[in-house]
């Protein structure tokens, strides 16, 4: 089984990252009843014996002692990272995995990229090397950042060049939050363009996301829940947006629900690599199949369903509806309308109790739209 | 003589498990419909071919499992061990951590040379366990990365190292609607390499197997294990023991050799397909009876009309009249979609086998002009029934059945190649555009040869 390291840069990156780790822990807790450290967990977490001081504490098999996330947290101002370290997830992060500064980048790509880049280059490399050493077989770096700010876009993209030079064989998957129509940072267009150039050249795969789409999805869910029509049949904690009350029960911050959607996306993307299924698709297969030309590596993502019904046996029509929804632009995490332009390639990743015949049937339905489409099929229900 | 099976990639390993399971279950099936002595000889023959003996009596499959990521091989090994009836050797598994990423070039150029020694060592160990080696049976898919790329590499190596043994590759033709975007590239590269190094290619199409599951077996929610079980049933009906000479009671000793001798008269024509009759769910089996005449009639028409199962056969298709000159024959063929065969092998299992009349298959109109029916057609028989079917017949044929799918895949791959899509993923690992062009040329040649049969 392969491991992945998550690098969260900037305020946005760290907040999304925090939701991601919370959900990942919850997912593994639901699947792994016996508390044994197995290969699925090892893809994102290390099993560490905290009594041992220094580096030698890693345990590879047996019961879970203490899980540490394979993550590097980078931010040029301390506020967000400190908050994470004081919250319930503080034990999941190693104090040696952080890089912080005091003043921040001032929403300036140049400061993030050139000034802090050169200042912290050695430190960043060292932390990355450390986390890579802890991995048996490192497959992929997940970088989470925003494009509009200073640290996320500047330092985040500086990282990409470093990773390409230092670890040329490891894939770089970047989750970028693009500025949406009503954006509060005035220099965000400049920051985004400068960052895009770096992404074009150094990333293997980019998953662009924008806030407006996430917000639309949330409004849709709220409408569904509040309209009462499906109210009784929705499982209470099953919303893609809910953090099920564990992390921030009292102060639900405005971006929490949106970050949860992105976290779900990342988890689902890697699910086929972590769990068994009848047709597995690893991350390198995703990048192989969806990147026809080296610079065309921007993937539009969408998630269905947005909530689960209490009735476990999903009747076929609802399943077919889910497939249709996956292609509808209301479920996408970025504003785009692929149906009126051209699909170069698309991938369907299915989790849960779906059989090959259902997949076949639905693909035949969409045959007009699709000429090229790979499948992955993973059996574990989250 | 024994057959060593090499299972490659996710597909290969999942199928391999089902095949061994089907072989074992059939050989230990109590309803053999023949005498006890007969049954024992059958069991012993099957065991010698596919299993080796271990200390505590549990048979060990003669197989080597290879995959570049551990999930599937772990699953396969544990499923076999849990069944308690047979298992895989503890050390016959080779796997890595990272997978091939559906990239033929990665499987062939990177994984191949890197792991060549370990894999060949494992195969060597398995071969040494055999008293005498009949050949290799390699199970792989064409669409993925490991099965296709590493499979092509391994077959080439086997050609070099064991040049006296026969190799039959079981390849899985992907779904027409697509499983993997680059499946066309992977398929053409695999086929062209295998055509050079393998002795026979036994092809199973996912689409056909899916239809069999849906229509004949009446399975509502078809999963891959259902498809694999149908495949295993078909393979079992070909590879289980049969009598060696008409009338004798000794079982055939060299199945692979005899198969190739009968079916691959010319190295240009290597693609074999299996048709099996009857095929139905266990529930329906209890209510059905069969006659040899009926079964064989259906089987013959399945061959001629290129149908893969006994439902939906086009009875309008007939072989052309034998009086016409060769050219006329060719044009008539195309009009009526008549499936010309180069060679056929019918395997009959069950009650009253000797009374079956195979005259329909000896018609020279079914075969090409350069091979007499007496050479092109063969029969294998055994009285021992297969897998609870009172009478069953299998047809292994070397015919034009794969012409259309092959043409389609080559066409699609060419379209993608013309726009140079995804080529950078292959050149990254050393497969250049010339390799693609070579593959296209070879396959076009094969298509033309089959067309002009």
From TrEMBL, chain A:
Family named by the database record: Belongs to the tubulin family.
Protein name per UniProt: Tubulin epsilon chain isoform X4
Gene Ontology molecular function: any one: GTP binding
Pfam families on file: Tubulin (PF00091), Tubulin_C (PF03953)
Broad class of the protein's primary localization: cytoplasm
PROSITE patterns: TUBULIN (PS00227)
PANTHER family: TUBULIN (PTHR11588)
Coiled-coil portions: none
Organism: Zalophus californianus
Location in or out of the cell: Cytoplasm, Cytoskeleton
From TrEMBL, chain B:
GO CC terms in record: centriole; cilium; microtubule; nucleus
Family annotation (Pfam families): Tubulin
The organism's place on the tree of life at top rank: Eukaryota
A Gene Ontology molecular function term of the record: structural constituent of cytoskeleton
Cited InterPro entries: Delta_tubulin, Tub_FtsZ_C, Tubulin, Tubulin/FtsZ_GTPase_sf, Tubulin_CS, Tubulin_FtsZ_GTPase
SMART domains: Tubulin
Subcellular location: Cell projection, Cilium; Cytoplasm, Cytoskeleton, Microtubule organizing center, Centrosome, Centriole; Nucleus
Family label: Belongs to the tubulin family.
Name listed for the protein in its UniProt record: Tubulin delta chain
Organism: Zalophus californianus (California sealion)
The gene coding this protein: TUBD1
């Amino acid at each position: 089984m392969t491991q992945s390291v998550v690098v969260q840069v900037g305020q946005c990156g760290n907040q999304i990252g925090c939701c991601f780790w919370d959900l990942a822990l919850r997912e593994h807790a639901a699947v792994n009843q016996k508390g044994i450290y197995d290969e699925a967990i090892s893809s994102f977490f290390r099993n560490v014996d905290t009594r041992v001081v220094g580096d030698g504490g890693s345990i590879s098999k047996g019961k879970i002692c203490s899980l540490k996330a394979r993550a590097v947290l980078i931010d040029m101002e301390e506020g967000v990272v400190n908050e994470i370290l004081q919250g319930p997830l503080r034990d999941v992060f190693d104090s040696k995995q952080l890089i912080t500064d005091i003043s921040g980048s001032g929403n300036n790509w140049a400061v993030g990229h050139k000034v802090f880049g050169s200042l912290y280059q050695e430190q960043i490399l060292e932390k990355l090397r450390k986390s890579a050493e802890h991995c048996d077989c490192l497959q992929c770096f997940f970088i989470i950042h925003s494009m509009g700010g200073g640290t996320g876009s500047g330092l985040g993209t500086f990282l990409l060049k470093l990773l390409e030079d230092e670890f040329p064989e490891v894939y770089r998957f970047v989750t970028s939050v693009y500025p949406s129509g009503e954006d509060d940072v005035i220099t965000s267009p400049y920051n985004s363009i400068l960052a895009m150039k770096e992404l074009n050249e150094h990333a293997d795969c980019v998953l662009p996301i924008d806030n407006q789409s996430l917000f639309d999805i949330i409004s849709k869910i709220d409408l569904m829940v509040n309209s009462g029509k499906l109210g009784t049949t929705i499982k209470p904690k099953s919303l893609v947006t809910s953090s099920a009350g564990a992390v921030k029960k009292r102060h639900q911050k405005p971006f929490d629900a949106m970050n949860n959607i992105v976290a779900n996306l990342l988890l689902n993307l890697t699910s086929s690599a972590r769990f068994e299924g009848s047709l597995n698709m690893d991350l390198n297969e995703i990048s192989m199949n969806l990147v026809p030309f080296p610079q065309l590596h921007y993937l539009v993502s969408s998630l269905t369903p947005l909530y689960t019904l209490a009735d476990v046996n999903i009747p076929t029509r609802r399943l077919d509806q889910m497939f249709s929804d996956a292609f509808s632009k209301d479920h996408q995490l970025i504003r785009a309308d692929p149906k009126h332009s051209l699909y170069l390639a698309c991938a369907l990743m299915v989790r849960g109790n779906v059989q090959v015949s259902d997949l076949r049937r639905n693909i035949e339905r969409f045959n007009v739209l699709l000429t090229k489409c790979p499948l992955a099929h993973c059996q574990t229900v989250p | 003589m024994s057959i060593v099976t090499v299972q490659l990639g996710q597909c290969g390993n999942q199928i391999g498990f089902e095949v061994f399971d089907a072989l074992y279950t059939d050989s230990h099936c109590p309803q053999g419909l023949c005498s006890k002595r007969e049954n024992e000889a059958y069991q012993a023959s099957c065991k010698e071919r596919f299993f080796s003996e271990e200390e505590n009596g549990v048979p060990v499959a003669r197989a080597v499992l290879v995959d570049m990521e551990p999930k599937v091989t772990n699953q396969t090994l544990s499923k076999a061990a849990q069944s308690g009836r047979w298992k895989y050797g503890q050390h016959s598994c080779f796997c890595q951590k990272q997978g091939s990423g559906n990239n033929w070039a990665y499987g062939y150029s990177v994984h191949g040379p890197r792991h060549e020694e370990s894999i060949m060592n494992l195969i060597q160990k398995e071969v040494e366990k055999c008293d005498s080696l009949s050949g290799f049976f390699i199970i792989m898919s064409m669409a993925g990365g490991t099965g296709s790329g590493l499979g092509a590499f391994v077959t080439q190596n086997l050609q070099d190292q064991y040049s006296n043994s026969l190799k039959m590759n079981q390849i899985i033709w992907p779904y027409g609607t697509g499983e993997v975007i680059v499946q066309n590239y992977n398929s053409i590269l695999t086929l062209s390499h295998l055509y050079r190094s393998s002795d026979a290619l036994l092809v199973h199409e996912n689409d056909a197997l899916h239809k069999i599951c849906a229509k004949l077996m009446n399975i509502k929610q078809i999963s891959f294990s259902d498809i694999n079980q149908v495949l295993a049933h078909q393979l079992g009906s070909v590879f289980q023991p049969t009598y060696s000479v008409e009338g004798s009671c000794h079982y055939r000793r060299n199945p692979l050799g005899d198969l190739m001798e009968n079916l691959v008269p010319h190295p240009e024509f290597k693609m074999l397909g299996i048709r099996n009759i009857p095929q139905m769910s266990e529930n329906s089996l209890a209510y059905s009876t069969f006659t040899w005449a009926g079964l064989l009639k259906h089987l013959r028409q399945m061959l001629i009309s290129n149908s893969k199962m006994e439902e939906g056969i086009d009875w309008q298709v007939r072989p052309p009249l034998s009086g016409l000159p060769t050219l006329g024959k060719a044009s008539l063929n195309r009009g009526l979609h008549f499936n010309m065969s180069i060679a056929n092998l019918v395997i009959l299992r069950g009650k009253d086998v000797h009374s079956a009349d195979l005259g329909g298959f000896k018609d020279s109109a079914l075969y090409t002009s350069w091979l007499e029916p007496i050479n092109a057609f063969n029969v294998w028989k055994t009285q021992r029934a297969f897998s609870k079917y009172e009478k069953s017949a299998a047809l292994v044929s070397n015919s034009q059945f794969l012409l259309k799918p092959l043409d389609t895949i080559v066409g699609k791959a060419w379209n993608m190649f013309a726009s140079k899509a995804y080529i950078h993923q292959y050149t990254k690992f050393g497969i250049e555009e010339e390799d693609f062009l070579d593959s296209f040329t070879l396959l076009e040649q094969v298509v033309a040869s089959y067309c002009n049969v």
